[in-house]
Design brief:
By secondary structure, the protein is of the alpha/beta class. About 35% of the residues lie in helices and about 20% in strands.
């Protein structure tokens, strides 16, 4: 076990429960292949205890004033900032991303707690003027109830935080199952909440076989709301389970984001921004710009600039301060990226740069650009979720929009242009929940995060982020 990595627990009803007597799974540092920890799996009895405590704690937490709830969330933000270096190091050890990205993610998580501390104090109802003056009509916004939340491994701090902070601010209790690959980061967030004075049972953290835990928690009558971030197939399955139980679900699923480069764009800036944006998180980001569509007159020039910017990126262990691109997080993604590249090249695609696994320990892959990709290639339809970018030419804005909207995904899209007219049109006509014009940085606490079509529904973050954890009650009184 790495000396900077901590022992792992479950958190149930305010108690830290060890792996003793429980099944475990290894936590592997993707940069070294070293097993750095063992994550305990919750038993059925553990899940029952979590559900019972979540139900009990909800009754107390919902009746805690928004003012007092905000104090706990603000204190949590303070603790996360004070502990940032330790948490970021754990995040990098278990997930692989460069330390500067991990630090930013922990800082962003603190921002989310601070943001929702204030949003929770501004959950307003309203008085509706009656037709009969003897009637008093009141609309209240109330917490929906205990939440079952499921978070992935690619953003081990931000994705759990968006769910936890919004739900707690609304007055809900939460049982969260973070990714088993990256458990320590979520546990440190839970520890900050615990130390900030969150009452026992308001937050429970469990790990285990994802299908078993999700099916059990969603089916329980205790759970009143579900939130999931992850793949489209799993999202479909959980949506069915939630539908059968008549429970609302927020889904943030995959993407295959287009980035449109028009001939009037600042090509050097676009190439630099997209190289940084595409290979941030080693491309394991659902809003990663992947299908880069370039207007034909500037296609070759942009491709050359983009390749040079990509080749200048330093790949390595995330703990090395020079590293800009870390390892792929697990062997499954290595196999998937390798398969997509092999399929594309077999169909005639050209490797512009990269294309190979980097020799040595760890799961490192060269940042890769493909060109001349036929539409039949699998990578034109499947999200690569790795360090793989596709560069494709287009003639007109209509062609670019048609290709951009061809897939069933609709999480993020990007465009680079100096034309206000073009920017307005693509902003209106791209099928995506989030659109970046001339930049790719769109994850901040005050803005909504979510997609359309197969990329899910509902928003996290922003003023919208708290709404799905609230229900509406109308009171009419004579």
């Amino acid at each position: 076990m790495h000396n900077a990595y901590s022992k792992l627990f479950l958190l149930i009803d305010g108690e830290w429960l060890s792996a003793d007597g429980r099944d475990v799974s290894p936590v592997v540092n993707p940069a070294t292949g070293e097993t750095i920890g063992e994550v305990p799996h919750a038993t059925r009895a553990d899940l029952d205890a979590a559900l019972a405590s979540s139900q009990r704690a909800f009754k107390t937490w919902r009746n805690t004033s928004a003012y007092e709830r905000a104090k706990v969330l603000r204190k949590t933000a303070e603790l996360l900032r004070a502990r940032s270096e330790d948490i970021a190091t754990k995040l990098t050890l278990e997930q692989g991303k460069p330390l500067f990205e991990a630090r930013y993610e922990v800082a962003s998580s603190a921002d989310y707690f601070e943001w929702f501390a204030e949003e929770g104090r501004r959950v307003y109802g309203r008085i509706v003027p009656p037709r009969n003056q003897a009637v008093h009509q009141l609309v209240r916004r109330e917490p929906i109830g205990p939440v079952a939340a499921f978070a992935p491994w690619n953003f081990p701090a931000i994705t759990p935080t968006r769910k936890i902070a919004a739900a707690l601010a609304a007055g809900c209790s939460v049982i969260i199952k973070p990714g088993e690959e990256c458990p320590a980061t979520a546990l440190e967030i839970a520890r900050a909440l615990h130390d900030a004075g969150l009452p026992p049972g308001v937050l429970n953290v469990v790990f285990g076989a994802p299908a078993e835990i999700s099916e059990y928690l969603i089916a329980s009558p205790v759970t009143r709301k579900v939130s999931f971030t992850g793949s489209v197939p799993v999202g479909r399955h959980l949506s069915v389970l939630a539908g059968q139980a008549l429970k609302p679900i927020t889904l943030e699923l995959g993407g295959h984001a287009p980035a449109l480069i028009f001939e009037d764009a600042d090509l050097e800036s676009a190439a630099r921004i997209l190289a940084a944006g595409k290979f941030r998180g080693t491309g394991q980001i659902c809003l990663s710009p992947t299908r880069i569509l370039v207007q034909k007159p500037v296609h070759e020039k942009f491709l050359d600039l983009f390749a040079k910017a990509t080749e200048g990126l330093k790949v390595g262990n995330g703990l090395d301060p020079k590293t800009q691109v870390g390892p792929i997080s697990n062997q499954r993604r290595i196999d998937a990226v390798s398969d997509l590249i092999s399929d594309a090249t077999a169909r005639g695609a050209r490797i512009v740069t990269g294309g190979q696994r980097i020799a040595g320990p760890g799961l490192f892959w060269q940042p890769t650009i493909l060109a001349d990709i036929p539409t039949a290639a699998k990578v034109m339809h499947e999200e690569p979720f790795g360090p793989l970018a596709l560069v494709l030419p287009f003639d007109t804005i209509d062609d670019a929009l048609e290709e951009s909207n061809r897939l069933p995904y609709g999480l993020a899209a990007y465009a680079f242009t100096e034309s206000a007219r073009t920017a307005i049109r693509v902003g209106k006509e791209l099928d995506a929940g989030m659109i970046g014009i001339n930049h790719t940085q769109m994850i901040v606490c005050e803005l909504p995060f979510g997609g359309v079509k197969d990329s899910g529904h509902g928003s996290e973050g922003g003023a919208e982020g708290i709404q799905s954890y609230l229900t509406t009650k109308f009171i009419s009184q004579v």
